[in-house]
Design goal:
By secondary structure, the chain is mostly helical. It has one domain. The protein contains 5 helices and 2 strands; from the N terminus they run αααααββ. A hairpin with a 4-residue loop joins strand 1 and strand 2. Helix 1 packs across helix 2, helix 2 packs parallel to helix 4 and helix 3 packs antiparallel against helix 4. The longest helix is centred in the first third of the chain and has 35 residues.
């Protein structure tokens, strides 16, 4: 079955289950309050980490280096903020794990190991053919 279809069906089922379990333990009002608090605090922290990533990327650019990690990190932070805005505890936990730099690096290592780098290695030479032409006689040697 398609992975996207499983996610579309599975995530709401998990979230509803967690709402029922946590709501029965702490009450409906506290559950709703906790959802709003995690969304607000998570987005605020994602914004803070986003600014740190932006500053790090700018310092990389000033050194004439490509800020690859910062670009990927910024996209991950935007996705984490989206997960935190969505109501639910499972998405909040995943969003918080993506926001914190140590766990974000672990996610990146896992993705990097899963999809190895493809492409050719940089070569220090150019392959080609040449012909010497004698300029005096305009003929090939």
């Amino acid at each position: 079955m398609n992975t996207l279809l499983l996610l579309i069906i599975g995530i709401p089922i998990i979230e509803i289950y967690l709402f029922i379990k946590i709501g029965s333990q702490i009450g409906a009002f506290n559950t709703i309050t906790l959802i709003f608090v995690t969304a607000i605090l998570g987005v605020a922290y994602a914004r803070y980490e986003g600014f740190n990533t932006f500053k790090s990327g700018m310092s990389q650019m000033l050194k004439n280096e490509m800020p690859i990690y910062e670009i990927i990190s910024g996209a991950a932070l935007a996705f984490a903020a989206f997960l935190l805005i969505l109501p639910g505890f499972a998405t909040d936990i995943l969003g918080l794990l993506i926001i914190f730099p140590p766990t974000r690096k672990i996610f990146f290592k896992g993705i990097k190991n899963k999809y190895p780098k493809t492409g050719k290695k940089k070569q220090d030479f150019i392959n080609g053919e040449f012909e010497e032409i004698d300029e005096d006689n305009d003929r090939k040697i």
